[in-house]
Automatic annotation (TrEMBL):
Catalytic activity entry: L-seryl-[protein] + ATP = O-phospho-L-seryl-[protein] + ADP + H(+); L-threonyl-[protein] + ATP = O-phospho-L-threonyl-[protein] + ADP + H(+)
The protein, known as: EKC/KEOPS complex subunit BUD32
A Pfam family reported for this protein in Swiss-Prot or TrEMBL: APH
Native source species: Fusarium oxysporum f. sp. vasinfectum 25433
Annotated Gene3D superfamilies: Transferase(Phosphotransferase) domain 1 (1.10.510.10)
Enzyme class, spelled out: transferase
Subunit structure: Component of the EKC/KEOPS complex composed of at least BUD32, CGI121, GON7, KAE1 and PCC1; the whole complex dimerizes.
Segments forming domain Protein kinase: 1-153
EC number: 2.7.11.1
Length: 153
């Protein structure tokens, strides 16, 4: 940037982050036909993308989701309670290059990939995030149908 930005108290701003518009509340999303199901699918797709990067949200609610009509996508926000997992790193070389080193390499592979019991906990958290999203959309749809049923004809 060729422009100098000043902050109160004469502090130079060295780095600046530009954020884009995330969208509007899920409640304001158009409800046309099977759009509710599409929103739920997009929300779960967003959560799974986060899970692939090793992030567990831990606070999945409709208040923490935004709908962007330009992309027809759902953006998840508010990562205050989120957990960042350290995923096991892939080995740089083959684990079993030849038969002579097979036993020691196999032992190292268990250390690198981790024990399956250690991986079950993040897996439970991932499924908990998905379950919370499905529950939130289920309640949202039930509330919407209750309002429709109460409306005078």
């Amino acid at each position: 940037m060729n422009k100098i930005y000043y902050y109160d108290h004469r502090v130079y701003v060295v780095h600046m982050t530009f954020l884009s518009w995330g969208g509007c509340s899920i409640d304001r999303a158009p409800r046309i036909g099977d759009m509710d199901r599409s929103l739920e699918d997009e929300a779960i797709r967003s959560l799974r993308a986060m899970h692939r990067e090793g992030v567990i949200h831990k606070d999945v609610r409709l208040a923490n989701m935004l709908f962007n009509p330009e992309t027809n996508g759902v953006m998840v926000i508010d990562f205050e309670r989120a957990l960042l997992l350290e995923l096991p790193r892939r080995p740089l070389a083959q684990l079993v290059p030849n038969k002579r080193a097979w036993k020691s390499e196999t032992m190292d592979a268990k250390k690198v990939t981790g024990d399956s019991s250690k991986r079950s906990r993040p897996s439970q958290s991932f499924s908990e995030d998905i379950w919370l999203a499905k529950t939130a959309f289920l309640e949202w749809n039930a509330d919407r149908w209750a309002r429709v049923a109460r409306a005078p004809c």
